[in-house]
Amino acid sequence: MAEFFSTVDAVRYEGPESDNDYAYRVYDADRVVLGKTMREHLRIAVCYWHSFSWAGNDVFGAGTFDRPWIDGELAPMDAAKVKMEAAFEFLTKLGVPYFCFHDVDIAPAGDTFAESRRNLEVMVAQAEQHMAETGVQLLWGTSNCFSHPRFAAGAATNPDPEVFAYAAAQISAAMEMTHRLGGANYVLWGGREGYETLLNTRMRQEADQLARFLHLVVERKHELGFAGTLLIEPKPQEPTKHQYDYDCATVHGFLDRYDLAEEFRVNIECNHATLAGHSFHHEVAYAVDNGIFGSVDANRGDAQNGWDTDQFPNSVEEVSLAVYEILRGGGFDTGGFNFDTKLRRQSMAREDLFHGHIGGIDTLAQSLLVAAELLERGTLESLRDARYAGWSQGLGAQILAGEHSLKDLEQQVASGQLDPTPVSGEQERLENLVNRALWRAIAAG
Amino acid sequence: MAEFFSTVDAVRYEGPESDNDYAYRVYDADRVVLGKTMREHLRIAVCYWHSFSWAGNDVFGAGTFDRPWIDGELAPMDAAKVKMEAAFEFLTKLGVPYFCFHDVDIAPAGDTFAESRRNLEVMVAQAEQHMAETGVQLLWGTSNCFSHPRFAAGAATNPDPEVFAYAAAQISAAMEMTHRLGGANYVLWGGREGYETLLNTRMRQEADQLARFLHLVVERKHELGFAGTLLIEPKPQEPTKHQYDYDCATVHGFLDRYDLAEEFRVNIECNHATLAGHSFHHEVAYAVDNGIFGSVDANRGDAQNGWDTDQFPNSVEEVSLAVYEILRGGGFDTGGFNFDTKLRRQSMAREDLFHGHIGGIDTLAQSLLVAAELLERGTLESLRDARYAGWSQGLGAQILAGEHSLKDLEQQVASGQLDPTPVSGEQERLENLVNRALWRAIAAG
Amino acid sequence: MAEFFSTVDAVRYEGPESDNDYAYRVYDADRVVLGKTMREHLRIAVCYWHSFSWAGNDVFGAGTFDRPWIDGELAPMDAAKVKMEAAFEFLTKLGVPYFCFHDVDIAPAGDTFAESRRNLEVMVAQAEQHMAETGVQLLWGTSNCFSHPRFAAGAATNPDPEVFAYAAAQISAAMEMTHRLGGANYVLWGGREGYETLLNTRMRQEADQLARFLHLVVERKHELGFAGTLLIEPKPQEPTKHQYDYDCATVHGFLDRYDLAEEFRVNIECNHATLAGHSFHHEVAYAVDNGIFGSVDANRGDAQNGWDTDQFPNSVEEVSLAVYEILRGGGFDTGGFNFDTKLRRQSMAREDLFHGHIGGIDTLAQSLLVAAELLERGTLESLRDARYAGWSQGLGAQILAGEHSLKDLEQQVASGQLDPTPVSGEQERLENLVNRALWRAIAAG
Amino acid sequence: MAEFFSTVDAVRYEGPESDNDYAYRVYDADRVVLGKTMREHLRIAVCYWHSFSWAGNDVFGAGTFDRPWIDGELAPMDAAKVKMEAAFEFLTKLGVPYFCFHDVDIAPAGDTFAESRRNLEVMVAQAEQHMAETGVQLLWGTSNCFSHPRFAAGAATNPDPEVFAYAAAQISAAMEMTHRLGGANYVLWGGREGYETLLNTRMRQEADQLARFLHLVVERKHELGFAGTLLIEPKPQEPTKHQYDYDCATVHGFLDRYDLAEEFRVNIECNHATLAGHSFHHEVAYAVDNGIFGSVDANRGDAQNGWDTDQFPNSVEEVSLAVYEILRGGGFDTGGFNFDTKLRRQSMAREDLFHGHIGGIDTLAQSLLVAAELLERGTLESLRDARYAGWSQGLGAQILAGEHSLKDLEQQVASGQLDPTPVSGEQERLENLVNRALWRAIAAG
Hints:
4 copies of one chain form a homotetramer.
Chain A: E1 12-13, E2 23-24, E3 32-33, E4 36-37, H1 38-42, E5 44-47, H2 49-53, H3 68-71, H4 76-94, E6 98-102, H5 103-106, H6 113-134, E7 137-142, H7 161-180, E8 185-188, E9 194-195, H8 203-224, E10 229-232, E11 242-243, H9 248-257, E12 264-269, H10 270-275, H11 280-289, E13 293-297, H12 316-328, E14 337-339, H13 351-377, H14 379-387, H15 394-400, H16 406-414, H17 427-444
Parallel strand pairs in A: 1-2, 5-6, 5-14, 6-7, 7-8, 8-10, 10-12, 12-13, 13-14
Antiparallel strand pairs in A: 3-4, 9-11
Helix pairs in contact in A: 4-6, 6-7, 7-8, 11-12, 12-13, 13-17
């Protein structure tokens, strides 16, 4: 078997002082933090699409990457096998426990659905073998129902029910394959479930279609005996002008309304959060607080660009707060941190794949240490407890228990019994506490 | 009684050829369009706060406006009476059927809640008299629970239950006064119901508080026998970093989750829509499609500025599409178009109040004509019908009726029975149709 | 010769009442407005790239368009000839006077530069023949120095001088061909003249390189005897994180600093203006006021999306103000309105190309009528004259003439001689005047 | 003399392990880094306006802060004296070397300019005494020419030349006072030098006015013998829709065009950079590279809010890269880091002023250590050197020396001599290097 990353050996933890570009400075898979190993906390996955299936093209230019498994003159299925070898070599050298894929990432589409399915079956068998040999597992599978022209106007929300049926077929097969590979989750990203113009769109009709589709997905899950979690990935726009799964709050409302909240969790992407006008911290905190948190796509955006740049996470300041909320909520269940992330188009060397992932993984590990420091000291939680203390007793508890009407409260205020004095929200002090924890955690190593 | 706008007479419809700055060119209150007068369709209201209570100050500078009823050295209650005279002179000269107010707009806060309430009662009695004399009615009332320092950390969502109680008192009184004045609606805008930093915030706790508050509002409404509609006004941010009533979809989810959807409708503001990353058209269409549409604050934003500029609507292109969705949904019930709008700080002359309102009202009237033209021709709806026709019969109808599982559909696709061909979404043609309707309606006058 | 648009005949002016989707309602090429025909005012061009060379692909999906001249299995040069036939059929049916192209749009790249140049020469000869037959002329030519991987880190601003040389070669040839075809202008768009990360970038070094390049372009222009105008197209970002030609003010400063301002004008794109945080109106007014206005790419953006959507102009409200400034500045010299515009990916039918262009052209024509109405009435200009009157006499004139020092002025103010009274900026009234002109112009037809 | 911050003693360096909220963990004024003390590197200033002159009001609500020197019932000049005592107590306890002020921050406006100037003289004398007693120095002075209604339409760019004269008077006096106090710089921020609507604006006329004004400022500077630096502060918008000093590139172009570049430097604010669509890093790098860098207002924005939040810097990740560029350019000359920063409206306790400043100062100090680490290792610079090496020899050097024409280069490429191969830009690796330096510096303490 050819070696595709011959300049790089297995990436190991070498500690903060290492000068080796191909080593972890923070991520030490077996290191125990708050009772679990870093591997167990972070559940890191590498995605197939941007890392192995994408050649570096953008809408203004051709692919730039040195990826022999893409550019080759091989027949499609041969190319798929070579790509899988490269992928598992990379996964193994990187030392991460999981990968993720779309159906079309691992198996080429055929001329018919039946042929596509046969291709997928062949490649899933190959994947089983690679997984057995390497111990790499599947964090989640998914189906690409947005690239082919038939999905131009959406998949489940397409005005043409035959397109709904085609998407159903793809997802039926992709769930089956995910189940076969022991996937921990199955993801639905509604890439074109939205609209380009309201002039030709009925939003409520399309919402009903989408809900019907998701109910079918739930039924199929149970029929298969798939024990993983179903995940929806919010994104506000791009490729469509507006995507229905806009953000966590929108998805939450939709799931509740259509009686789907028991069966779905959200897969939050940092860059999708920021495109929706939220911080990553906000989206994670919202999901954790409301019991819909599932998994994370860890890629960041560029604060100056209005599209999804899908870059590797490199801000411990940004990621720590999200990890804090995840830990506060009990940590990942079946989810994990997936790298749905793109190299820059100029990062054309194969080694750049390592640089991106190593930097991203160390950022997650550093963020874990910071979040653990914050949790262990408990300062933030005790200040939050104190701030809301009034609601667990006396007037606050009575109000929540329904013991006061608006008119009652008016009379109490009118009588002069109640005259609240505002107190400082202490935002600056809290921000200092976070930075101090961040610096302490980094210094402690 | 002094005259405050002595340079302007009653503003009348003079038709498109008029050269009079103080005349309507399009708004002809008694003109019948699609079976109702313009007055009945648009239900135009002028707001008290920006138009009469604001002096033109911003965070960088002092007030600039020539408003003797603000600047005067009068005692607060005397000033309130003078302000009300000015307001009703303006409303009458403008010839609009409605006004709107916050409690503190019409009556000064006293040293205690009891005094504030007494001031409010006095001014409501004055308002009753002005309304009787002029025929102007109340579109909605509301309470300002965001300006006073006690509300710095929110009203219903405040960490201090006493602040919740204080807001309850204010709103109890304001609803009572709105009822007394025959208001058609009561509005809640959660100006500081949100957070400045997540570090000191429990979002779920605050959501529970807010829901409890709204249930109390509903009870109070029924206790009062108030027949108007309760309205929530979405806004994504400003003054707070994040407001909970982010957009229509978020509010919709919240209302459903807390069993409040039967009792509340949304009051959509164009500028809040755009700050949330949506078009005005989107927010209105979402609300109409999902049965939560209530009323509109018609002010636009500035596409280059990231804060609420609250300017008078002047884009027929933007407003027509929103009016189209409103008409398609049956038009306003108790709602209407309120001018929650600000003059520019340089527009310091009293006449500028007329320019802003006249231009805004003509924009609404022109938009009504455009929307009516689109509806009467029926082209958009018939194209939408055709686009979704597949869902009302055959496969589409079966899918929605639950007659196919994912696996069934996979088998049909695998067998080659289904292979959808994408068709054009015709966005450019539809946009042309809208422009043609717009130009035809304008030309028809 | 095959017909590619057999369902559409020549598009003609049929007036506002026409129900024909394939007719102009406003654009009447020979109609005289302010002393020139509409054709002469607007100088409309159709671009080759999005209209003929793009298949409807985006970063999330494959091409969707029905374009036999792209999808065919023809040899590259045969395909190029077929494409040119389709293009000229379209141009002729649309009845526009100009087209625009990049080198690679009309001629396929060869294995070597020499072969690419030979291909280009062949296709230029073909174009000459088509132009002679149809009377269509060339508004401008340009060279694509951003799609090929060699330009990933820029062309003139590349850290590798050999890439600078390669770009020089391409542009040398493209200018020569533009000159041969009688092009009225030559455009430079710095697609990747910018940076992805400052960490590897020297901005000043790259600015010096760019200036050197532009001086070479000027020399080459004069050597060729090319009488057209050299145009730079500002864009703030995309594909790169930051483009150096950010906006008109930035380009203006650059041209002045490097002594290039005499030789270059700007080609302003509406969507680039909005991505840079400006209105289209602003960018045009800036360029006209500062003597650097050249030409326009007329495509609009989507206010809710943060990338270049390059849609056909359809807002008369937005375009009229830009046309007003252009007319105020004397109208186009060698420039014109180019449609650097994209269909939506769902607009997959060949007819959609007509819908987009017809709607866009009528929008420009309608905007011309509005701008002419504004200019002829003269209201805006006379109000501006009045507002600044103080600067053409007395104190204002003295100040501009350098007759007062800061200390002099302080003494005058201190003595009480000067105490300015602010006056209304009348923004709302002016906005009403514009809408009234807009409605009058549309009604007048 | 009353003590205003009695709960806080002098803030001292206590190192990373300290649990004292009122201590520095990183900022150790006398610690030497790269040959200078932290005090000398950072030149930290506290501003008067947000910290002492602002009560916590916003456009939606009243002031919330506990500031007896604002709320008191004292006569204006007495209040100004009390405020100055509070300010110098704070400055002294914080231990920073500089402060900054606007004229109206320290001295109340009188009924006439002459009275305002007398007030200012009195307060400047007081300031001299405080400065002598405490050793605190003046980083810069400035004049508020944007809050008073007379400046609603701008100061130097006002359509009324009398307003220009009034601004001239204020700035003449403020420069004199700054000179008297030994200020190191004088700042001009064009708060309302811009437009609200282009409909009433002549941009070129206003640019000419502004240039004239700045030339008068230069003359006055030399007349006074003021040796400090004149600084312009770019900001793209807010309060006006568009400000002329949009960003560094725009200011640079303006200064060059009007022959002012020798006399002015820029005062860059992080939050203004982000509002203009740039990173803070970009604006600093641009200014340093182009020789116009002067000083910094260190406050950050909120990435989710579209207005100037002016918060204390708390991101070492963001600030380090800016400090790196500053050090690379030789460090501050007369400039420094000013805290033009606002507490949140909920931060109503006087102690919050300490939290904000301490956190911000430690962020700057930490960033200095990171930048020093990057500079000392030299990795970034050596990689940049290598990347551009081609331009200092051979072909690159010849091109820059003007030895090749476009046609020459075309011939070389056509002959096959030149065929560049793209190389990786290594963005991910560089980002990892920065994070490694950041973590090393923090760990090293």
